[in-house]
Amino acid sequence: MLIKPIELEIDPNAPFDNDAFDRKDVVEALVTLIGRVAGPYVIAIDAPWGSGKTTFLRMLSACLRKQTHPCLEFNAWETDFADDPLIAFVGELDRLVRDISPDEADRNELWNKTKRTAASVAKRAVPAAVKIATFGAVDLQGDIEKIIADTTGSITSDAVDSYLDDKKLIEQFHLQIDEALSLAGKHGKKTPVVVVVDELDRCRPLYAIELLERIKHIFNVKNAVFVLAVDKTQLGISFSAVYGQGFNSNEYLRRFFDLELKLAAIDSDKFCEALISRMRLDDFFGVRSKNVNLQFEAGNLKLAFRGVSKILGLTPRAQEHLMSLIATAMLTTAENQYFSPEVTTLLAGAKVAGLPVFERVAREGTSIMELIELIEKRAVEVGKLPEGFLEILIGALLSVAKDERSRDFLKDISKQAQETERTIKMERDFHLIVGVARELQHKTASLKTIVKRIDLAAQFVQD
């Protein structure tokens, strides 16, 4: 058993063998689209943080390479330390150009000229040229003369000449980078060349803005397509911190992107099954399943994990964090002791989700009923849940409850269960709730012990 899931491997020859996110159709459609567009073209892949954007880009890159499109994977966050993203980009493009043209003599003279031009562009910073290039993308006040004046300090012929020189330098860079990328066709590879950019929303706001400007206005060459993974909501918050709360970030971002693809929500059940497999949990449950008191642990964990992930709305990244907490807590459980997967999963999930109810129940003596009321409310909002999940979870919670309110509730539903035939359909199966509560009371760990395991696990597992 592992305490951290194995990273999803993307086989270059079979990119969808481990497609836990069910993205094959979308990736293949995007590959087809990229093959038919003429650059410059910028595509945004929009989804919240932790929703599988990185895996999506890795599958996309593998598919593009299979079709002989040169492809560069650029992690924006790893280059966030650079003063100018242009230098970081050109540095990474060096690898791409080597892949495009293995012939050193063929590429060296041209690419060395391109790198020298890029260095000149970065050194001069071309502030006025870039601002004017983004005119209309950023809601700037005034006209071009004012921009030049703001940048240079006065409207003089020297200032205008300086601007024109900067603009000419950018045009020269366009020609050189386009010529370098066009070597792909000469060496039997397809154009456009594709650059996929990940982790943009984790960057410093100013760096992210500069990177977008560089992509759209300095790398806008006919042989290049950029695919950017973004969380537009998070980027909007970052940009508002720079431009002010009234800034229209959606309109700003829209003008950078030629196409936006909103990733659909991941099938939670399918992802949970894949995650459990990646964690190799069978190693933990294999021997324990021979103990009659522990034989249902594995099944109850899978049921609880799928259900809790849904009612708490956990992203795939958060689910991985939750499973790491659970796996670490497992290691502190004696071989002959019931692991209490139902209560452990819910409490650990509440901790991962940052819900205040975790602290109230774990340390302040708040009634277990607060948790039960929370999950019942969330269940109504979510809709369909795994069959039997709510009843088993409520029963497990009641089995560790010591407060008077929870005990009264258990007595009440026990009475209703006795007075109601099993054949009569009820909103909740009280027979199952009571049965689970009575059974687990004799073998589950105390609430205090479960909380202690989670707290200990949290010291070893990073967010």
Q: β content, as a range?
A: 5-15%
> How many distinct helices?
22
CATH topology of the largest domain, what is it called?
Answer: Rossmann fold
Summarize the main sheet: 5 strands, parallel
Low-confidence blocks of residues: 126-145
What's the total number of strands? 5
- Secondary-structure element string: HEHEHHHHHHEHEHHEHHHHHHHHHHH
Total discrete domains: 2
CATH class designation of the largest domain = Alpha Beta
Radius of gyration: 28 Å
Overall geometry: elongated
User: Spatial order of the strands in the main sheet?
Assistant: 2-3-4-1-5
Structure description:
There is one protein chain. This protein has a 5-stranded parallel sheet with strand order 2-3-4-1-5, with helices on both faces. Helix 9 (205-217) links the parallel strand 3 (193-198) and strand 4 (224-230). 60% of the residues lie in helices and 6% in strands. Helix 4 (104-124) runs antiparallel to helix 7 and helix 18 packs antiparallel against helix 19 (389-400). It is of the alpha/beta class and 463 residues long. It folds into 2 domains: 24-262, Rossmann fold; 268-460. The model is unreliable at 126-145 (pLDDT under 50). The protein contains 22 helices and 5 strands.
